[in-house]
UniProtKB/TrEMBL annotation:
<dbReference type="InterPro" id="IPR036388">
    <property type="entry name" value="WH-like_DNA-bd_sf"/>
</dbReference>
<protein>
    <recommendedName>
        <fullName>DNA-binding MarR family transcriptional regulator</fullName>
    </recommendedName>
</protein>
<dbReference type="InterPro" id="IPR036390">
    <property type="entry name" value="WH_DNA-bd_sf"/>
</dbReference>
Length: 152
């Protein structure tokens, strides 16, 4: 089977696994995993409540259930390291967290450039659009099924 003969599910899963592996290689020496990077990156845009962080990151966690306690308060957690703190009920980056984010962001930018090499911005945008349409089709079908409706 050539690359173009493989189904989309193969490529989605394969790419997902490669992205996870690349994030480990890119950020591992900083003691960061992809989920912790996502938290740092989200908080770099401003303080967020725990619920907002959970909602924003739910699609990236197994079964859609964010494991924030480990990512924040575990042995290598972001709060434990002093990179994230609490301001009232909101999570926020500390000075150390902002510095860690800058370092990680430079590396993640390189990974993104590597991932997108050979693609135009238009090709990337079209790929994202197509995947969004496919996801929307299945979401609508599943919602219809859950509501007892008929699928096309």
């Amino acid at each position: 089977m050539s690359g173009t003969d493989k189904p989309i599910g193969y490529w989605l899963k394969h790419l997902h696994n490669l992205i996870e592996e690349q994030f480990d290689a890119t950020l591992g020496d900083l003691g960061l995993d992809r989920r912790q990077w996502q938290i740092l990156n989200l908080l770099s845009r401003g303080a967020r409540s725990r619920g907002e962080v959970e909602q924003a990151l739910a699609p990236f966690w197994p079964d859609g259930v964010p494991e924030l306690d480990a990512a924040l308060n575990g042995a290598d957690g972001l709060v434990t390291r002093g990179w994230v703190g609490y301001d009232a009920d909101a999570l926020t980056l500390t000075e150390q967290g902002r510095a860690a984010h800058r370092t990680a962001a430079d590396r993640v930018g390189e990974t993104r450039r590597l991932l997108l090499r050979g693609l135009t911005p238009e090709q990337y945008a079209e790929t994202v659009r197509i995947l969004s349409v496919m996801a929307g089709n299945l979401e609508a079908a599943l919602a219809g099924r859950a509501a007892g409706g008929k699928q096309d």
